Amino acid sequence: MKQWIKIGLLSCAAATSTQVNATNYSVDGRIDAMGGAGTASADYLTGVFYNPALVAIYSRKDDAGLLLPSFGLQMMDRGGIVDDVEQVQRGFDKLVKNDPSGHLDIESGLNNLNGDALSFNAGGAAAIAIPNRYLSMAFYAKASMEGLTLPDINALGATSDALEMADTTAIGTVALGLMEAGVAFAGYTDFLGQNITIGVTPKIQSYLTYTYVEKINNFNFNGYDKNKTTGNSFNVDVGAVWFYGPWRFAAAGKNLIKNEIETAKVDVRFTDTQNSGADLGTKSYQYNYELTPTYTAGVAFMTNYFILTADLDLNEQERFVGLDDNVQMFRAGAEFDLLYQIQLRAGFKKDLAGTYDDAFTAGIGFSPLNMFHFDLAAVYAVDSTYGFSVNMAYEY
Predict the structure, then answer these.
(1) Cα 26 → chain centroid
(2) Cα 296 from Cα 312, distance rounded (Å)
(3) Helix or strand or coil: residue 251?
(4) Of 59, 201, 319, 328, which is most buried by a Cβ count within 10 Å?
(5) What's CA 233's distance to the chain center, in Å?
């Protein structure tokens, strides 16, 4: 049953993301397989998601490119929160039936629940790129959702009694969907005798938030899509790439206009389950998501048959304020190309902020006649993080 709960939660996120949108979660089977390090190594078609300056880097045979479809899912269940919540809820059910073993289930479940977290990302994207020697352009649309489920144990204050603690424990899910659409403009320039490309992406963003908080004995993992707020904003990305032989040195700034997104306010009323539902108190929950500028530096060593690349976020993203979900990523990856037909990829990413465990990525690409591309990637981390992404691209 618990596996279907997890699958159902991801399915809801994926379904919503097609209508809503994207955060910093990129969906690209090629770059995802290389740890997500795309600031210097993405191509002219997918560069719009990482660094708009890459849109100007193409070969003579490239007249246009189409990325459709592109899709990805990723989930982390740290500590087994689904199992632990179910154990506490089982304990409450036993107490209703006068089974004293319910106390043990509640106490054990609460102890295990401390430090648990469930997060998910889901998204899709599409792009059309038209490179040329005057001003390259790429039109794109991206939709994704990210969510976080956390416990608030003993929400009203300190108590040592397990049943009283359970009566004042809440579980909350907060999710942000973000849809953006824009066009990247990029071109070459010669600066002090050096070849450089620069790019800019003006874009429109539309977002929504969900906030679902409930007492632990009433919480439902599939019921996260509650208390919605919506809004719109304008934003911009910029980037540059410097070439030196087979080396690329790149920098990108995404979402340069800071936007604070406020969720709906939810009031949770706690009651005494063993004393005729007596009122214990109420606590309010409301969150702010900070969509702040992200600055990334990247380097890539690129040959016809081998690529080695790495990215580093230069600043830490706070995301949901106060929920301890900050991220600052280091990403690295490699690609081996077998006669322009099959590509083997692997990568690694590390969260310098310590929110997520180290993750390993791998993937494969197929590019018959170097015109049609099918890329598949998978990610795994020891904190029960799993994910995949897949895309198809066409070049003319």
Answers:
(1) 7
(2) 6
(3) strand
(4) 201
(5) 20
Q: Which residues of the chain have pLDDT under 50?
A: 1-24
Tell me the C-alpha distance between 180 and 236, whole Å.
11
Q: HEC profile for 288-331?
A: EEEECCEEEEEEEEECCCEEEEEEEECCCECEECCCCCCECEEE
Q: Domain count of the chain?
A: 1
pLDDT of residue 161: 85
Nearest to 390 by CA among 76, 169, 165, 70: 70
User: pTM (2 decimals)?
Assistant: 0.87
Tell me, what's the pLDDT at 11? Answer: 35
Per-residue pLDDT at 10:
37
Residue-number span of the structural domain to which 143 is assigned: 2-395
Task: Output DSSP code: residue 87.
Answer: H
Distance CA 92, CA 98 (A): 10
Query: Considering the chain, what percentage of its residues have pLDDT values greater than 70?
Result: 93
Tell me the backbone φ, ψ of residue 83, rounded to 5 degrees. -60, -40
Question: What's 355's domain CATH number?
Answer: 2.40.160.40
Please give the pLDDT value at position 159.
Answer: 77
